[in-house]
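Researcher: I'd like a structural prediction for the single chain below. Treat it as a standalone chain; there are no partners to consider.
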Amino acid sequence: MWTTKTDTNSIMETEASLSEAEEKILEYVREHGVITKNDVISLLEVSASTASRTLRKMVKNNLLKQNGKARSTNYTIIK
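Model: Treating it as a single chain, here is the predicted structure.
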């Protein structure tokens, strides 16, 4: 028989498997409400390409929502 995970278990598993960088980003967004690529560059002390890659991954994994385009892009937690 197949069993399925509940939404709560899936969320707990997702949070447990986050990288240190992703945890820092989520903590920042919880405190400030929003984060930009430049915030990530400063927060993690990484290159622009690494910041973009990390943010794209978090959007793909439904951890963050992208708002806006190009230079006005920011990210918030999905509610």
